[in-house]
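Sequence, please.
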């Protein structure tokens, strides 16, 4: 199947899993790289890669050539899998922390925890803002900010011109800044005390 395009392979995978091995061979290194940039545990990376290609097998029928290239579709699918896996990891970590209690924490530990909570709060604010963006914006920002692709590489991955990629990236960054600013203003407003008007 060396003469088949990635798009041809996805069409073939939708009809049966026979073409999955070739698609996996071509793209597994990319997906391992995506996982390594998001997870620091080798087992989590392995789970991520396996889940991505399982999703490829199950979702290939929804691939639409008119909406972009197979590589762009794969990166978008991988981003969704990573987000789901990260949310699950966060829930498990939170549950473990609740179960572990505070018996063994020292004063210095609380300071480190507060620093981590501040950093996590900022990260959650960014993730929350990104989740409020359009899927195309999230995919574009993820390819640049998380996967480290240049605008030129993003253009190639999404099947668009370099100029279009730069314009879309500028707009996506502006929307993200606006969303972050709006979230901060909403949080500040919700922190204000509520006063009741008292009629004379």
């Amino acid at each position: 199947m060396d003469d088949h395009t990635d798009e041809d392979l996805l069409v073939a995978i939708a009809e049966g899993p026979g073409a999955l091995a070739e698609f996996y061979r071509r793209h597994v290194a990319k997906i391992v790289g995506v996982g390594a940039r998001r997870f620091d545990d080798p087992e989590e990376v392995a789970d991520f890669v396996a889940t991505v290609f399982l999703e490829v097998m199950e979702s290939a029928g929804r691939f639409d050539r008119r909406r972009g290239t197979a590589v762009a579709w794969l990166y978008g699918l991988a981003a969704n899998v990573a987000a789901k896996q990260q949310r699950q990891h966060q829930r498990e970590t939170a549950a473990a922390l609740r179960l572990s209690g505070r018996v063994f924490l020292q004063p210095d530990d609380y300071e480190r925890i507060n620093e981590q909570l501040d950093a996590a709060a900022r990260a959650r604010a960014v993730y929350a803002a990104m989740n409020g963006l359009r899927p195309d914006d999230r995919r574009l920002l993820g390819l640049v900010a998380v996967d480290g692709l240049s605008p030129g590489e993003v253009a190639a991955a999404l099947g668009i011109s370099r100029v279009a990629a730069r314009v879309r990236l500028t707009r996506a960054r502006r929307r993200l800044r606006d969303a972050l600013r709006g979230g901060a203003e909403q949080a500040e407003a919700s922190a204000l005390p509520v006063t009741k008007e008292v009629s004379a």
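The radius of gyration is 21 Å.
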